[in-house]
Amino acid sequence: MLLVASHRGGVGKTTTTLNLAAGLGGRGHRVLVVDADPNGSVAAALGIEQVAQRGLERAAAGERSVVVRSVLPGVDVLPNRADDFHQEQRLSTWLDGLRTRLGSDYDRILVDSCPYQGARSRDLWAAVDELVLVMRAEAVSWRTLPDLLKNLARLADVGLAPDLRGLVLTRAPGRTGPCRWEEAIRTRVGDLVLPGA
């Protein structure tokens, strides 16, 4: 299970998730995209908001009918609504149930998460196998990246860290060339930055 996470909204997390899913589905993999962002960005991007109905909670209990089939070639989607998420609910518990009940149906499960929310996000990170961070090349990323990496290191110290597959750097709308923040982030994390596509 791979979690696509970000430090804040609007940086390309959902776009990254859907592009990864489409690429894997196009290569013959069976992929499930789980919308674990209360904003329901996956459902909105794919135009399936009207069918989102407590999907994650119900799928974790074994109900397959909440999965929207073949949204993209080889890709199914588990959409959610914003009112399905409450602070007391543990998304990590739902992901564990989902892995147990539906995991054998798919080659890959990609989870589009909410922007970083401290302990709640660390809980999600500990529940998955792999992590991709998406950040926009800007000053706020430069300031927040060290904290994200420290939280990942804390999870590693107790044996709960997912495998960090890399960092996807996006650019602000309209920007085409490199900027000083992109160079600064690349210098700070080196090979963690994934090649552009």
Could you explain how this protein is built, in words?
This protein has seven helices and seven strands; from the N terminus they run E-H-E-H-H-E-E-H-E-H-E-H-E-H. With 197 residues, the protein is α/β, with parallel strands linked by helices. It has a seven-stranded mixed beta sheet with strand order 3-4-2-5-1-6-7, with helices on both faces. The longest helix has 19 residues, at 139-157. It is globular, with a radius of gyration of 16 Å.
pLDDT averaged over residues: 88
Shape annotation:
globular
Q: End-to-end span in angstroms?
A: 22 Å
Low-confidence stretches: none
| Tally of individual helices | 7
Widest sheet, order of strands:
3-4-2-5-1-6-7
How much beta, percentage-wise?
Answer: 15-25%
Radius of gyration: 16 Å
Tell me about the biggest sheet? 7 strands, mixed
Structural class: alpha/beta
Helical percentage: 25-40%
Order of helices and strands: EHEHHEEHEHEHEH
Q: Tell how many strands the DSSP assignment holds.
A: 7
